[in-house]
Amino acid sequence: RTGLQFSLAAKQSKVLMITSCAPGDGKSFISLNLGLVAAAAGGSVLLMDVDLRRGVLARSFGLDRRAPGISDLLAGNADFAQIVTKDPATGLEFIPSGRYPPNPSELLSSDAFAGLIDNLSNHYDLIILDAPPALAVTDPAIIGQTAGISLLVVTHMKTKLADIQSAQQIMS
Predict the structure, then answer these.
(1) Distance CA 164, CA 147 (A)
(2) What is the reported pTM?
(3) Could you tell me where the beta strands, DSSP code E, fall in 51-170?
């Protein structure tokens, strides 16, 4: 956590994107737990599930999979107050992915998404974007443009070096 804070400060950013090479590598687990630890340490932290195709973090906050979220906000079907949830124990704020849209890449590459992230950076100490796997879709390359740092989660003895190298190329 501390290392990430220093790295983000050096980049003059508050936005961290977390992705992986493939589903099941633990990126959502890492995103959630990093968010909880950072919020418990006293920072204002926002965790966003920006996997608009298979987002799963909603259930960690007791929300229905179809709860309004970032996709609904970007499509103009919800406002910010309707989509943000706060964990009472840590103060971590969370935005679910929302309903699965027919055009996730278009929503994430929109000026509305970039503007939202820029605006939210003025209100939070840390914004964690839980993105889809980098080798599955192009979304992490799009989302990564709004992040100061992109973190690639890999699984020991499972993730292949070639997959790591491919993911790095996609994200750079």
Answers:
(1) 19
(2) 0.93
(3) 85-86, 93-95, 126-130, 149-153
